[in-house]
Amino acid sequence: MISQAGVRAIAAVVETGSFEAAATRLGLTASAVSQRVRQIEEQVGAALVVRGRPCSATPAGRRICRHATLVGLLEQDLLHDLGLPAGDRVTVRVAVNADSLALWFIDALADHDGLLFDIVLADQDRAADLLRSGEVAAALGRTGPPVAGCDQADLGVLRYLACAPPAFIRTWFPGGIDAPALARAPSLRFGPDDRLQEDWAARLVGHPVRLPHHTLPSSHGFLDACAAGLGWAMNPAESAEPLLATGRLAPLGVQPFLDVGLCWRWLRSARSGLEGVNRSVQRQAARRLLPMAAGRDQA
What we know:
The protein contains twelve helices and eleven strands. Helix 5 crosses helix 12. It is of the alpha/beta class. The strands form three sheets. Strands 3, 4, 5, 6, 9, 10 and 11 form a seven-stranded mixed sheet that branches. Strands 1-2 form a two-stranded antiparallel sheet. Strands 7-8 form a two-stranded parallel sheet. Helix 9 links the parallel strand 7 (187-189) and strand 8.
């Protein structure tokens, strides 16, 4: 049987990033934490922690961390059912895209104070993969097929708008928004998994377009860079509205929208422990996102 003390040690090392910080959290020495981790690694016959700055989990280590989260949630439920004082708060790893985090998702987490959250920034398209790999216990991603071992709820639509400063549009799209112009004009990309610009361009012209791009992994910096004329981009319509109103930004063409359906998924085995979070996420999404039926060109 795997030692739960060892499981907690591995989870603490991965969450805090070092053996020293994990030792402080657990009230142990760093050598004691290291010994507990090593004992489980010898038991399972595989490395579980990548020693580095910061330390991280191997694929097998992520499974151990997920087990630690599930056990912690079950213990929390048990204490509640028995009318006993709550123990240490459980840290739950959650994947969310940067735009949702900036616009509305924080309110969903603040609405539920029974847990600690370790937020992983991940594009909507990568969220399901993080659940499958065991890296997170819940994830906000694009609507799509179910993930094995998970429950899910469709939330609504986050509307994006293709936009740029008027001067940028006059310079790079003098003849309109077509494939040759899109292949020349600089665009912005949040990160390697961000394909919103490509999705919109392909839908507009009817085929994939290779877009030159800057990479800028910051939600606020992304909008600022777009407004400064560094490149055109897909920005959340809600974020772009003030700049559209002042004329700093303008939509690209007459079909500038791309609506992305969002889905909340969570491990079925953690359903009870995440019940409050799930309700909060769905409640805030209902307030801030467009209804699914209202979405145009839903991705």
